[in-house]
Design brief:
Length: 103
């Protein structure tokens, strides 16, 4: 099965994160089960930690729109000082998450 444009972008981003020596990440799957509440609703697609700095990364195509629950999550966590990235391209991530100097 062919990947969606958003799936391709997620793969590009995770390949990049894999290349960073002091980076760990997790893909977040928040798909709910019909008829049940979804505690992960609004959570970003990826959470990454690079050299001690944590980033919440939401992948969207150029035309993709954030859901209301995603906007609420980002506002709430931004107010708490979180690093939020809305990644419409790999470059959006590379601008914010860089190779850390060797310690």
């Amino acid at each position: 099965m062919a990947m969606t444009p958003e799936g391709i972008l997620k793969k590009e981003i995770t390949d990049y994160l894999d290349s960073l020596p002091r980076c760990a990440y997790k893909r977040i799957y928040t798909g709910g089960i019909k008829g049940r509440s979804n505690p992960g609703r609004g959570m970003t697609d990826l959470v990454a930690c690079n050299d001690g700095e944590v980033f919440f990364i939401e992948t969207k195509t150029k035309e993709g729109k954030l859901r209301e629950s995603q906007e609420e999550f980002m506002i709430e966590f931004s107010r708490a000082g979180a690093n939020i990235i809305i990644a419409r391209s790999l470059e959006d991530v590379k601008k914010r998450i860089k190779v850390s100097p060797t310690r």
